[in-house]
Amino acid sequence: MSRSALWRQEANVKDRERKAEECFRVAIEEGRACHPKGLIPLACPDDTFNIHPMLLQNIAKSPYFQKCCEKLGDWNTLVDEIYYEVKHMEPWTAGASKSPSTAFCLLLRLFTLRCTEKQMSLMLEHVDSPYIRCIGFLYLRYAAEPSTLWSWYEQYLYDEEPVQIRQGKADTTVGEYIRSLLEDLEYYGTRLPRLPLTLERQFKVKLLQAERVEERAKQHEKNTAAMEYFQKLGSRLQALYGDEENPVTWYDAVVDRVILRDAESGELLKRPKFQVTFPEYGNTEIVTLGEVDLPGSHTAGSAPASGSDVRSPVREETKEIVGGDTDTMKGTEEEVAIRMIVDVGLETLIVAI
Predict the structure, then answer these.
(1) Where does 101-196 have alpha helices with state H?
(2) pLDDT for 258-277, tens place per residue?
(3) Computed from CA positions of residues 262, 267, 273, 274, in that sequence, does the dihedral angle turn out positive or negative?
(4) How far, in Å, CA of 62 to CA of 209, rounded?
(5) Rounded to an integer, what distance in angstroms lies between the CA atom of residue 353 and that of residue 343?
(6) Do residues 248 and 314 make contact, with C-beta atoms less than 8 angstroms apart?
């Protein structure tokens, strides 16, 4: 190749890079000027979105991303594009040298367009494609305030819709994918933003509790007599309850109402929920199937203060999950901290840590 041809080639490369930079700059400015009602606040830089620099650079230079910026000017068209073009959730395309995937190109375009709470709710509930849902969950993991993640994720932790996360690999479920977003920093060749340490510990505790709730719900579903009993109005049972001031534990309760359909959509629920009253305090709550049990299954009462000789129901719950006595179990410092949090309650131990 002649010297002049090399110069022309180099000039063309620089021209493409300049156009890519300008395209990304314009997209960022569009996002900064976007202030719709109910916008999810970004808890990250509004020009990098917590994406690893090398991945971000490759996405911004991608012809597909530039096409997305030109053709996809609103949330609706972007969701349609996800439906047609996304086939996995890895950041890189297999067999290509640092070529970003359609999923991450569209994720970055969604960052620049921004997303409202209503739009996010529609994405997470979308019935046409699990990838629309997964990109929504990933958007939140990268850019939303970390303390809000649990409220977005909780009801989907054991969602069984199949989805292919890795190219050419067996399907997993949406629920497994969500749990991995809370548990892992490594993400198929890139890294997710680090969570605050206190929040990370809280999530680990809540995931352990959610796992036990899911196991209990599956056990109840196999027990026809128990299911009939739970769904009889006036049945006395035990239900889990906790709030910001008190750790989750077992209390005696009475079934007031059985909820079989979603209040908003009217669709039949996979499992019944229950409106129960706690006679000891008089308050009424809605609980899931995994948050109730037959009367006498657990010692009713709140968790004791640290150092008490009385065993709390939550401690017994934790011992079933991890195996062994929480007073004598050995493990890493972090594992011990997690078990202690479940035992004495989040607020108590976090102050001690």
Answers:
(1) 102-113, 117-124, 130-143, 149-153, 174-183
(2) 999 988 888 899 999 999 99
(3) positive
(4) 42
(5) 14
(6) yes
